[in-house]
Every structure is written in C-alpha cells, then in structure tokens.
Amino acid sequence: MNAAIELGLLYGVMALGVYLTFRVLNFPDLTVDGSFTTGAAVAASLILQGVPAPIATLAGAASGLVAGTVTGLLYTKGKIDGLLAGILTMIALWSINLRIMGKSNLPLLREETVMTPLRENGLIGGPGAILVFAILVLLIKFAIDWFLSTDRGLAIQATGDNDQMIRSFGVNTDGTTILTLALSNGLVALCGALVAQYQGFADISMGIGLILVGLASVIIGQAILPGRSIMVSTLAVIIGAIVYRLVIFFALAVGLNPNDMKLVTAGLVVAALLLPRWGFLKKLPRLRIGGGRTGFEGPDAAAPAPSEPELVSTASAK
Questions:
Q1: How does 99-123 read in b/e, with b if 16+ C-beta sit within 10 Å?
Q2: Are the C-beta atoms of 221 and 236 separated by less than 8 Å?
Q3: According to the model, what pLDDT value does residue 38 have?
Q4: Across the chain, what does the average pLDDT equal?
Q5: Residue 153 CA from chain centroid, whole number
Q6: Are 59 and 51 in contact (CB under 8 A)?
Q7: pTM of the model
Q8: Is 282's pLDDT higher than 50?
C-alpha cells in the first residue's frame, strides 16, 4: 500500500497539471498523453548520457513546457480546435519521443537518479519516501495556489470562465491560454520524469491513457472534497490521485486482471460523476466544505445549504 501512496503523490503532480487545463482554463488538452512520455524520455536519455539527475529532471519538465506551448500556438494562432490541437501534438510527440529515446524502452536501474538516495537508504516503500514525495507535491500545490492568486493567475481563471468578458478588459487571452497549457504540460512532463526514475525505466507507451487517469484524479478528488477555493481544489486533486492509486491497488489485490485497469478507471470516473448528483455524498456532511471557487460542475458542487448544522455553527463562529 505504501507504494500505491507514493505513486499517488507522484501522479498528483500530473493531476495538478490536468487541473489547470481541465478545470481552471476549461480546455480539453490531450497533449498530456504525449508530454508525460516526453518528460520521461528526456530525463532518461540525459541521465544515460551522464547528466546529473536533477538537471535531467528539470530538462524533462522543460520539454513539457515546449509541448504545451505548441498546442497553445496551434489553438490560439492557428485557430485549430482545442481538442484537435492536443491530438495533433500528442501524435507528433510519439515520433519525437522515439527519436529522443532511440528505442522503445530505456532502463535506468543502474543509473544515478533522484530516487537513488531514497532507494539506497531504504526509504522507498516506507514512510520516509511518502514524506519526501508529500513535501514535493505540496510545494508545487502551494506554488500553484500562489500563482493563481496573482494578477496573471486571476486573468487565467477569468479566461476559463468567460474569455470574451476578460478580453473586453484588455487581457490577452491568447497569452493566458498558451501560458496555462505550457505550465500544465510542464507539470505533466515533470511527473513523467519522476515516475520514470521511480520505476527504473522510461517506456514509449507509459503515457497512453494518462489523460483518463488525470481526469479521474481531478473528478474523484473534487467529489470527495468539493471545496470552492483554489487551495481546497488543488488539495482535492492530490487526494484524488492518491485515492485513484489505492483503488487500483485494491483492485489488483483482489485478483482483477491488470488488463482491466482501464475499465476500472472508467468506472471510477463514472461513479465520481454520478454519485454526487444522486445525492450520495449528502449523506456524508462532514465531507462537504464550502467557500471560494469550485471547479466541480455537478449540482452538488455548490456550497452546502446554510441550513446544515455544521455550516450554521461555522457562520455563527465568524
């Protein structure tokens, strides 16, 4: 189970990237499937060439920034539909990733990676690694919280809510869109670089279907913790990534075929979308958190009714 939590925390970085485009910008970005592998491919290739692992990891993240920028340019300057722009970039990245790697799989088991200190000290698979990964993902979360509270971040949120309105105030929505796509795919590629070093190899197929994992993490997290503020939403995304990995862990533990995991993921997303709408979570009032902005579009994403005992007492306290 510790390994599932570790992977959940690492994939939380990817989920935060998906959250930026899917919830904040309201953009269907499929570049994720390609940029995740690109980050892994760049980091693994540089490590095998003797580049220090931290620099290789940052280079992997930078490759995602470039991929996201390309998608943004296709969408804003090329006037290509957002969904198609992401698909085009994703397909192009498949060939680019093969060029970077030189072959379909790059092993890293005997190389010095950012995971080597943890592995040599026996921390992988235990509380030590969980603590390290938690600190990493929380630092990224707080950085995103801060950025989205700046003028540029507020402009990005406004672009996702109503681009025509914010454009009338003189904001360059093309710039905010490109910036968000670049940051999102940068985080996704960073996750790919870290996961490749964690599992000891980079593979050309490791990003296939990853967008569904990201969406599942975002939707599950916001179904469990449907807060309206950015800080709560980003925390919910991380929790969703951990819950997703735990569900996969338990699904494998009870003997399900690994080939059925995509079906399990789809079932999780459907359940996370439907259960709140059917009022299931209303029976769990302690999970409802109000205040601020929300990214959840379901009818239960609204703030809890003031008649609920918990919120009445909270309002009285204020």
A1: ebbeeeebebeebebbbeebeeeeb
A2: yes
A3: 94
A4: 83
A5: 18
A6: yes
A7: 0.83
A8: yes
